Every structure is written in structure tokens, then in C-alpha cells.
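Weekly structure sync, notes
Attendees: PL (lead), two postdocs, one rotation student
Agenda item 3: pending single-chain targets
PL asked that the sequence for the first pending target be pasted directly into the notes so everyone works from the same version. It is reproduced below exactly as submitted, 404 residues in total.
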Amino acid sequence: MLVPVTLLGRVSGRLHPLDWLAGGLLALGLLAVATGLLPSGPASDVLARIGPLLVFLATVIVLAELTGKAEVFDVVATWVARAGKGSYALLFGLCVVFASVTTITLNLDTTAVLLTPVMLALAARVGIAAVPLAMTTVWLANTASLLLPVSNLTNLLAADRVALSPSQMAAVMWPPQVAAIVATMACLWVFYWRRGRRGEDRYLPPEPPRPADPVLLRVCALACGGFLLVLLADLVPLWAASATAALVVVVAFARRRREELRWSLVPWRLLVLVPGMFLVVETVGALGMDRILASAIGAQEGALGVLRTAAVGAGFSNALNNLPAYVAGEAVVPLGHQEQLLGLLIGVNVGPLVTPWASLATLLWFERCRWHGTRIALGRFMGTSLVLAASGTLAATVALAATS
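Predicted structure, written out during the meeting:
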């Protein structure tokens, strides 16, 4: 049952604790199917449901990784710092826009994996505090993931039940998305960016960016832009759009920097973790968790019912993880209660901020910060994140109820 873990180790060269977690969950899920705890029918339905999601996840991560290697994020981050002209207030607004757009268009894991080291390197290059930039990245990786199906894996899971095209989803979710970002900005400024926290009045803007390969940079930037346009136009399935954009970028790298194309670009850990997590959650739900969640969420419609559902989703996400929290919550939300389902989506997107394991993006972010040498005090992280999780979830839910 440790074959997936062994494969991960061969591909990545070493085993990380998250690799063991991924392999362990998959082993538990397969064991549940083999022993009959999870019947083969529901197991097949789960795997069929997440198949397109896994194709999207693999291809969009490859797209994002190669886009990062082409220095697209570095160039944008440098121009952001230059546009700030030494003003922390202006830099703050630009960083919020940068992190939000990355999350909305390329998903929260891209922001955690690729934008985090870019922002931390930028902090060192221009001599500004790293922690405010790091917190901007991790908070907006979660709270800015409401607008489009691509922004969060939970949104992709919700696509069939919500029954909204990307443009329709954006039309419905932009008020809660704006509310969540505004709440994030307020908490970021109060807890991390204001003068008393950062310790400086101004910073020195960096030199203009000089990418090593301008051709690759342009190809990757155009591929990402084209992917977003196709997504918004809803012309093809999401997995097909991400696969096409990734193929364009892979071909460009094959012609110009073939040595960068390695199997380690594929997110093997996530491809093992996600199906294992879903099989385990399906098993636990069949053993009684569904009844507990159904009682907690209820079937009440209207603003109070949506808020209750969002709160349960946020709490369950921080206790376990937002992906299984959404799957389990969706199973007990009554059919036809679309607002309640959207409330659950707010809870599992904006709420999973408090514990390090509440979302995969936060786990990946902690790993990147540790690798960079940036220390985040866990007590301060959890305390400030609790304030944002509560205020952001409330603000987004109220905005949804007010505009529905």
C-alpha cells in the first residue's frame, strides 16, 4: 500500500512528511474499498467525479511552475515594487491586487507555491520586512478564491451542484469576493502592514527587471492570458483549457530550455493526496459523519441559514481540511438550496485560515516560508487568522445574502 509513497520518493528524490500523509490517506481509502467499508459503487462515483479535477490540477500546476521558471512572476513582482515608488501604502495595495489576481486566475495553490518565494525574495532584494508580504500571500491565496471555478478546487467540486458557468459564477460571487478581500486588507493593515508593525517609512524600489529569456516570458504570459479568456468564455471544459495552455508552454520550453522539463514538475503529491482524501471522507460519511453534519448545517434558507452553513464549513475546514469539509457539507445540503451551497463555499474558501492544515495552500505556504528561512510565530499566525476567518466569512456571507 506504500507504492504511491515510493513513487513520490523516486520522483522527488526524497520523502516529505506530506508525501507520507498523501500515501497514507490513499492507502486508507483503498483499504476501505477492499474491506467493503466503502462500497465499490460510491467509490467509483467519487473517482469519476474527481477525474477531470485531477487533470486540471496536474496541468495548471505545470503551467504555473513553468511560468514561474520563465520569470513572469518575478517580473511582475519587480514592477509592482517599482510602481509603489517607495510608498508602503501604495505597495500594499499593489501586492493585494497581484496576489488576488494570481489566486483568481491560476488558483490558490499557485499563489502559495510560486508567489510566496517570489514575494519573499523581493522583500530581501528591496530591504523590506518579509512577514507582511508572506501573510498577504497566504491570506489572499484563500480569501481571494471565490470568484471563478479555477480559483479553488472546492469551486471545481461545486460546479455541477451550483450549475453556473464561469461568467455566471463571477456575476453571483463578485460581491462576496470583494467583501472578503476588503476584510483581508483591513486585517493585513492592522496586524502586519501599518507603521507600528513594519518598522519602516519607505523602501528603495528595485532596478528594472531583466528576464533571461524574453521569448519564453512572452509565450508563458500569453498562454496564461489565453487560458483565462477561454475560461471566462466557457468555450471548452476547464481541464481542456488548462491542458492546452500547459502544452503550449511545455513545447516552448522543449525548444528553448529543455533541461527544465522534469517529471518533478507534475504535482505527484497532490495527485495522490486528493483521491485518498476523498475516499476517506466518503467512508467516514457513510459511517455516520453525514448525520452529524446534517444536524449542524440544517436546512434553513435565508441569510441566517446561509451564515450557519458558512460557519459550519469554516469550522470543519479548520478542524480537518477544506476539501473534505466541502464534500461532506455538500452531501447534506438539501437539493435546490443554492444560496446555502454558496454559503458553504464561502465557509470552506474564506474560513480555512486558522490551522496550518486547514487548506493545502496554507500547508504549502508554510513549507515555502520554512525553506526561505522566514519564521512565522504560530501563535500570532493563528490569532490574527482567526480574526480574519470570522470577519471575512461574515462579510462575504452578508454580501451574498444582500445581493442574491
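Discussion points:
- The chain has a mean pLDDT of 85.
- Residues 76 and 98 are 8 Å apart (CA to CA).
Action: rotation student to compare against the earlier draft before next sync.
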